[in-house]
Amino acid sequence: MSFIVRLAKLTQPDLVARAGATKLPQLVVIPYSHYCDLAMWVLKDVPHVEYSFPPGLHVLPVLRLRVGGSKKNVSKSSAMFSGKKAAHAAGGTPTAVPVCALPDGRVLVDSWQIADEFLQQAGWSDDGLDEQLRDMLDRKIGPNSRALAYYYLFKPELSSQLYRLVTDGTGFVFRTFFWFSQPGFARRLTKMLKLDDAKVVQQIKDSLHADFAQLGTLLEALPTPFIAGQKPGLADVALATMAAPAVLPDLYCGGRYKECFDQVYLHPDVRPEIDGYRNTAVGRHTLLVYKAMRLAKTSQ
């Protein structure tokens, strides 16, 4: 067992045991992640306990839950890079969020499992959600929209919004730490995602437009307002959340970060691109689903 996993076991609560004791699901999230937004959305009206962490501070709690017990609870979904499922060769990503411990001892390892588990309690249908759509959201739209959001947030002119987002709800020590480490954090992620390569960034944008166009054909051919029928279902919400970083709906993540994302949108290089994604069938569908279903939530 690695040192960091031992540290997680020594310092972090056992959320599986806590779920059993309280009879409440225990959800761990980075609250502005679009993967987490899907999980938070399906659990919005379900009694549960939510643990929100900024990037970095989530590592020990997630390791404790995913690999600190008697078995590994690692997802093979939610890719970091377009075209690849999450670390299949290594058996998954042990620090990925969301992850949710249930009172019966099970651990739901990604947003799909969480959504599937609480589908009925949320009153959603899974009509229209096939493996092809799941795969496109997992391997292409999800990671590409996230990379695009990083590309925008890492613009020097938007550094104050990145700081505001990452430090939301944190204490003085972390805010001070991130004040000094933010440039290095941005550089590392930029290099890891190759966002300093103009060709890679253009490929991300082109791929999103192509995938939006492909799904737009499906949406425009629907005989009903939503993929699931007369009202939004899991397919609609999954599509909306995975597209959200490229569309920036007002109620993304319940509207908690609207002021921050409004400032991102107003950047002169960003606004035309976001408007371009919004002015597609997928963009309009995303805005409609958020407006129809996601109630503003200002505190967690």
Automatic annotation (TrEMBL):
Highest taxon in the source lineage: Eukaryota
Alphabetical list of CDD domains matching this protein: GST_C_family
SUPFAM superfamilies in the cross-refs: GST C-terminal domain-like (SSF47616)
InterPro entries, A to Z: Glutathione-S-Trfase_C_sf
Protein name: GST N-terminal domain-containing protein
